[in-house]
Amino acid sequence: xxxxxLGRFAAAGSGVxxxxxxxxxxxxxxxxxxxxxxxxxxxxxxxxxxxAFTTGDTGEVASALADVHDQLDLANLRFGLGPIDRDGDxxxxxxxxxxxxxxxxxxxxxxxxxxxxxxxxxxRISWSPSVVHPELEEGERLAVSYEIQERGQILDRxxxxxxxxxxxxxxxVYPGRMDDAEAGVTALAELLGENPxxxxxxxxxxxxEQFQPLVLMRDANVDQALLDQVTAIPGAGAEAVEINLxxxxxxxxxxxxxxTSEHRVSSRVPGPYQAGDTVGLSGLQxxxxxxxxxxxxxxxxxxxxxxxITDVLESWEGDxxxxxxxxxxxxxxxxxxxxxxxMPGNGYLVAVxxxxxxxxxxxxxxxxxxxxxxxxxxxxxxxxFTIVSSLAALESGAIAPDAEMPCGYQTxxxxxxxxxxxxxAVLANPTLTANLAAHCTVGFADLAGRVGPDALLDTSERxxxxxxxxxPLPVNTGELSIGRGDAEFARAMNGEQGVQVSPLxxxxxxxxxxxxxWHAPTLVQEEEPPAVAPTDLDxxxxxxxREGMRQAVATRMPxxxxxxxxxxxxxxxxxxxGTALHWFVGYRGDVAFAVLAEVNPQLTLTGHYALNAAExxxxxxxxxxxEPVAPTLxxxxxxxxxxxxxxxxxxxxxxxxxxxxxxxxxxxxxGTAGSTTGQSGL
Length: 682
Prior knowledge:
The structure is a single chain. By secondary structure, this protein is α+β, with helices and mostly antiparallel strands. The protein contains 21 helices and 26 strands. β1 (76-87) and β2 form a beta hairpin. It is elongated, with a radius of gyration of 35 Å.
């Protein structure tokens, strides 16, 4: 028995309005005694005793009163005695009815009226269906009707839909055509692997001739054998419906949608949902469940013998479902997904609007609904963090824009040896700009002592790293735990120790450098601005950093400049927990982006996967992303609406950008044995 039914049986004997002890055979000396006795017995579920206080056939009245509980799927029924008008041997009594229609449904309050007459056995209620409700006539019964809202759409920044309308099969029943409703619904539930309790609750109170959808399944999971088994159950059947179900892009952001009848879903998602409803399990579908799903319009109706509605006795208007506007750009998102599709393992690309911090795209190489590492991942940034270190050095006054910043082949700080990734050095005009462009680990290690941890922490936080901005979805803003030892801080300046970032947080850093102001990100279009205020940065200092990023692309990554406006950025290789990390962080025009590829270390010398993806991304932005292909849907399980799968997304081949380095500055040569080597160069 379902928990809901257990609760209802327990509740049926509680909350008695008044207490009176009378034997059913004792003549009722007054209308008040008869009415109280009848209502008390009905409220307690003792329908035969209640029927004894009426003029009707005891069995027929008891059955009619019991049917009311099933027809309304009642959780609880309470009565209150109202005024009684007596006129000789007849009387009319009013009573208040509070009918709890159950989990997720409203409470129905109305005033009933019952006529009474004096006879040999005292006062009795003159029985007719109008005793149940004043509008109910002979041959009519009660039912609860639901008008379920169509699930709303999630839209991109231009109002384009991001969720595909998908044809699914709704399995259900016509209650009035079932020989035995309980047996039939139980058989259907067992066939589909469902819990019969919630399905029975829905069917008992439904209009008998209206099809009641109970279980949703993707068409890919429905074969003729299953349809034949379902239709063999008297009164059961299937109908095709279309639901906004499958994300056409950004599956980890948009999320997964499921039917609520399936017991695993019910255990994962709280809320007053009924069989046949849809509910978001993750992503924006979950966060904005109420806005997207709305709620059903519920009506208590009267039905004639043919199951046709004769009157609407009460109606509760549901909340209308609606669309959710996001900051995503469908074209940018498709470009990001196509660009990451050729990565050899996990990988992510996040793009944001330079002027606002609005998230334009968040893509993963896996394309899975649960792979949210673009927003929540925690990674060692390596050399891309020198964008932050350079700005900290300038803001702290540790170095002037045109001052010399030596970049030798190696250096010793705090007893540890730092070596440039390619074994080279910046010999001509070694300024901060040149060190940033060449990604000189040695130069930044030597500069660490003049910058100091406090200045680096301050600049990092003003660029949003490790601060308290947020999105509707979980995010990682970064973590800063910078050691005070000389060697530890030198490694922190190069992003190799004490700093953890997400692709999103680094994309926001690039946007701040481009715009001159750090903006907290937004994902959903809202009237209220983000809770974290923008942070303005010094324009003169930013110009130095921008020039270093421009030269880095021009000298080490020139193929990125083949697709329109000039690109500014930094790229790196580093390691974390035995995995090689390939990074690119930069911007072009009004789009800032960060790319991260997790690579088997054995593949790290065969190419730079973040650069490959960055070039593909820029190519697709300039020339158009490939059209998405139909997602690969799961073919196992019974509630396909509960499994959107990980094949959603688009396909595309990333570019084959090489990793040329500026002569004498970068390369793929390993560090000297026994040394602390900067492993984040190209």
